[in-house]
Amino acid sequence: MTLDRTDPEGAIAEAARTYSNWGRWGEDDVLGTLNFLDEAKRRQGAALIRRGVSFSLSQSFDMNGPQKGWRRRTNPVHTMLDTGTDAVVTGQGFPHGLGGADDVIAMPLQCSTQWDGLGHIFDHGKAWNGRPAERVVTSEGDLVTGIEHMAPHVAGRGVLLDVGRVIGEDGELPDGFAVTAEHLTATAEAHGVSVGRGDIVLVRTGQLTRVRRDGWGEYAGGPAPGLSFTAAGWLHGTEIAAIATDTWGFEVRPNEFEHAFQPLHQVAIPNMGLLIGEMWDPDALAEDCAADGVHDFWLTAAPLPITGAVGSPVNPIAVK
């Protein structure tokens, strides 16, 4: 795909037509590309467990996160409802010396490691599978494709594509670096791993490594390496079930068009039905993969079954 950087509308419309999966799994579908992740694929993924070593791919959920209030996205606020002090001082009203602690958390569902649900992005008023957006997501939530539908399904063969290590300098891609299909293919070849139907792909750019070292800066919404708009064909043609990155917005920022905002999202979610993860932390896994040369593994990354949600926090676990 070649880009006319002055014509985002035209490029988005063409990619939406070319890579649309509308109707592919029937008019009532609520899973999108997760339909590619079937029982056989899960068995394949489970067979990859050999050493039994596991890695959490989640960032922390606390006040030290990167959010700065854009679109009312804040870092999590964790509050204790009952503490050890309460148990000692008040007794809490329980008999025979019993005491306990309870807590509550308040946070946007997409403030840290998370999935974008199918109701998260629209294209010209259309949600996934061509449904009118106003009939899908209302003030009551996503009435059709709420992320709770995906909760049983996101477990299978994971593949790490460490583009930062293969293509970048010192394991990191610079902000604004557009990861193309050629970069993804070259990285897979360098790792000796295949990418195909039903896989859950994790792309490491190295940006999280850098901000962990240098400070958050503009991580939440600012310049970043990420997938090029031209990678839409690769995302569609490989028939992957899902993809996640270590960046805030999945695609390269600034975006590749003039006067555009997240154009790849506009193609991938409402038209392709692709499950997208953001702000994942692949660094410990990437070190292990580099050491043993194995870049595929069992991966489970179920969203919380929050009824009607258009996104969800997640603690992905990779097991090798």
TrEMBL record:
GO molecular function term, any single one: hydrolase activity
Record bears the keyword S-adenosyl-L-methionine: no
Alphabetical UniProt keywords: Hydrolase
The keyword Acyltransferase is annotated on this UniProt entry: no
Enzyme Commission (EC) number: 3.5.-.-
Protein's name in the database: Cyclase family protein
Organism: Streptomyces glycanivorans
